[in-house]
Amino acid sequence: MTALPAALLARLIRPFRPLPAPVHIQVFATLVNNMGGIAKLFLPLFFLEHFQLGYGRIGLLMGLYGAGCVAGAYLGGQLSDRFDARRLCALLLAGSGLSTFMLALPWQAGAYAPLLLVAGLCDGGFRPGNMRLVLEPCPPALRLTAQGYYRVAFNLGVSLAGLTGGLLASLGYHWVFVAQGSANLLACVWLVWAYRRWPATAGARAGAPSASPALATTSPWRDGPFLVFILGQLIIMAAFDQIYGTFSLFLREHYHASPSLVGMLFTLNGLMVVGLQVAIAHRVGRWGLIRSAQLGVLLTGGAYAFLNLGHGAFFAMITMVVLTVGELLLSPTWSALVMQHSEGRRRGSYLGLFNAAWSGRTLYAPALGTWVYGALGPALLWWSCVLLALLTMALHAYALPRMRSAAAPQQ
């Protein structure tokens, strides 16, 4: 009876064995860090119930956190070009943990504004360095597997946090903040200990000599194809992010879906990511990066068309499944394309802008989606998502081949 689980476990971990030790160090830090990442979801309820703040002021406070994430992602990428990304990630995790711990203290409502801004800067700043340290030590052939591994750890951590977050919130919101701060600091301690324990395999330091001095001075802001790629990313992210706002609103108002059904759909999303991400990332190399990226964009925007084709839980489930497959394709392909294109360039700056654009959707997508939903109706919103996908595919048809051809030679 024990042979079957052992064989299954061996099969599950087989794709990860060739990955360098630094990848495992960062992936475990990602898992621990995200196990406490549910606190920000409870902040609006905390401000509403504890301070009786209006919705406008709550939105402003949460907007400060979102703006901090965007600015932190961009600045964190740039700093990883100047300083050791390993130490930078540990420092940002410590900052995130301390600022989150301070949210649990009895402050006046206005005092939370700078705390949320600092927490956002630290959370956003950690991501590009974290991604860099996961992907950079790998040879190009293993980067897709490493990205899938990273995504599984990220989503598994969030799923575990979701299981405990509701229980802790029922005991008091301050316990949610304490739990997240503890997870941040534990991830920081793990990084410091692990890189001291395995210094010989700690991975490449940021600021290593570039393959080409001319490319090393290239700024992403002067890189036309990359900027067109980022523009397409911003456009399709506006469609993707509707899953966290107008999609749930639509299910409640038009499908009369229960909260449990909405929760089950998001559970399905998480299970698909954990169960399929590595397998899909492993096969993307054979399917082709550009072809897989374009298919991912089409599925991401096109998934919403199913909501206009029928009525009921079946169409909601099909929408979530198709959207999740698009997400599973986009995450590894985009990361691999940016890593290839930034080879020998200011990689941290490229990853910083890429991550800032990814996080930046929270600043415009919810407001844009709810406005279209309320003013023009959900049917037009869902068809608009399909059009956004087609527009992004047209932009990326120009940008992605040029990014591939302009990539520096691999060393």
TrEMBL record:
One example GO MF annotation = transmembrane transporter activity
Note the InterPro entries from the entry.
Answer: MFS, MFS_dom, MFS_trans_sf, MFS_Transporters
Q: How does it sit in the membrane?
A: Multi-pass membrane protein
Membrane-traversing stretches:
21-43, 55-76, 88-105, 175-195, 226-250, 262-281, 288-307, 313-338, 350-374, 380-400
Q: Which residues form the Major facilitator superfamily (MFS) profile domain?
A: 1-404
Q: Where in the cell is it found?
A: Cell membrane
Keywords for this protein = Cell membrane, Membrane, Transmembrane, Transmembrane helix, Transport
Residues forming coiled coils: none
Report the GO terms under cellular component: plasma membrane
A Pfam cross-reference name: MFS_1
> Which PANTHER family does the record cross-reference, listed alphabetically?
INTEGRAL MEMBRANE TRANSPORT PROTEIN, RESISTANCE PROTEIN MDTM, PUTATIVE-RELATED-RELATED
Please state what the protein is called.
Predicted arabinose efflux permease, MFS family
